[in-house]
What we know:
Layout: E1 5-8, H1 14-24, E2 30-34, H2 35-50, E3 56-62, H3 66-76, E4 83-87, H4 92-101, E5 107-111, H5 119-124, H6 131-144, E6 149-151, H7 157-163, E7 168-171, H8 190-195, E8 200-203, H9 205-208, H10 213-222
Parallel strand pairs: 1-2, 1-8, 2-3, 3-4, 4-5, 5-6, 6-7, 7-8
Bound molecules: ligand LLZGTKA7.
Amino acid sequence: MSNRIFVAIDTPDLERARALATRVRHHVGGLKLGLEFFCANGPAGVRAMEEIGLPVFLDLKLHDIPNTVAKAVQSLAPLAPAILTVHAAGGRAMLEDAKAAAHPDTKVVAVTMLTSLDERDLADTGVGGSAHDHVMRLADLARAAGLDGIVCSGAEVKAAHRAWPKGFFVVPGVRPANGAAGDQKRVVTPRQALDDGASILVIGRPITQAEDPDAAARAIEATL
Ligand SMILES: O=c1ccn([C@@H]2O[C@H](COP(=O)(O)O)[C@@H](O)[C@H]2O)c(=O)[nH]1
């Protein structure tokens, strides 16, 4: 994949999503559709976005008992997304069953620790220790369960890549130098994330909220 930016199309409005994706399509390598889009538009919306001709990453962060997640992944298989997310915290059986139920061409990746969280948030959920250790633990679990890779922040990707050289590493929480972090707490620049081993970068608001999304995507691409 020559362009490793997946633009996060976070809107419930299909027409806006289509317009945005069409506008930036020459400066990104794929489209990331998340819960906001999927809850509003469902599989038909995903198919409409696939027509734009870029790989689609379905970021649904599935997390439930193994049987429920496996059935959900099975229902999504006809869409054959390039990438699909589940939560690593669902445990080994859930991860194994999700991978087994997915379309064979879909990379199933496990969300480790959301980039909007820091160590204080982690402690609030009853998990002690560092973000680094938590991500590494969940990365080990994802690998043992046969997944293709993980979602982590740029702060952990170097260590995760070293421990899992063949893993696929999705890095959100990416901001151009001096870009507004918004609700993201573990943030790195696109260049840093790639240098440290990211397979793809997920970038939303720095592109989609820019006055000229096409120019913003082009400017980020130029830094890579
Ligand atoms: O840990 C995670 C996992 C997923 N995301 C998603 O990535 C984008 C980021 O959007 P920005 O506007 O660039 O902040 C968004 O769709 C999240 O759902 C994440 O941010 N962190």
